[in-house]
Amino acid sequence: MRLLTHNMLTSHVKGVKNGYPLIIEPLRVVVANVEFNGEFIARMISRIEWKALCQAAEWVGHADGLPREVVSDFEGNQDFLKAAHRALMEVEVMEGNLVCPESGRKFPIKNGIPNMLLSEDDV
User: Fold this and answer.
1) Residue 119 — very low, low, confident or very high, per pLDDT cuts 50/70/90?
2) Which of 75, 87, 89, 26 is nearest to 51 (CA)?
3) How do residues 5-60 score in pLDDT, each as one tens digit?
4) What is the rounded distance in angstroms from the CA atom of residue 87 to the CA atom of residue 90?
5) Bond before 21 cis per omega within 30 degrees
6) Cys-Cys crosslink for 100: which of 27, 66, 67, 105, Cβ 3.0 to 4.6 Å?
7) pLDDT above 70 (res 123)
8) Predicted confidence band at 118 (pLDDT cuts at 50, 70, 90)?
């Protein structure tokens, strides 16, 4: 699961009012080379919850070099876009859990795929 995906996920467990961001309990994290596309990253910045991305990067041990805040000129700032690209596209949680911050419900991550399915009792 890329951190881009994590940034879009929330817990929908019954009764949960604050299911975002999901806490990452990583067991295996990989960093893969992904071709840099600055235009794509620049378009995604406005859709990203930046503080949640920074927290996720810390949870998985890859926050080094990631600015704590979005810079005002991010569209033309290649250093910022490359740091964002690395966090969003190259860091991938292969095994672990996502944990609802309110209920504590764990959602497993296997082979890089988070299983967010709920049982009938959770809906």
Assistant:
1) confident
2) 87
3) 999 999 999 999 999 999 999 999 999 999 999 999 999 999 999 999 999 999 99
4) 6
5) yes
6) 105
7) no
8) confident
Q: Which residue has the tokens 């810079």?
A: 71
For residue 107, the one-letter residue type is: F
Question: Is 122 a residue whose pLDDT tops 70?
Answer: no
CA angle 56, 59, 65 (to 5 degrees): 70
Kindly report the pTM of this predicted structure. 0.93
Give CA–CA dist 39/122, Å, rounded: 39
- Write down the residue that tokens 């596309």 correspond to: 37
Distance CA 100, CA 91 (A): 21
Spell out the SS3 assignment of the chain: CEHHHHHHCCCCCCCCCCCCCCEEEEEEEEECCCCCCHHHHHHHHCCCCHHHHHHHHHHCCCCCCCCCCCCCCHHHCHHHHHHHHHHHHHEEEEEEEEECCCCCCEEEEECCEECCCCCHHHC
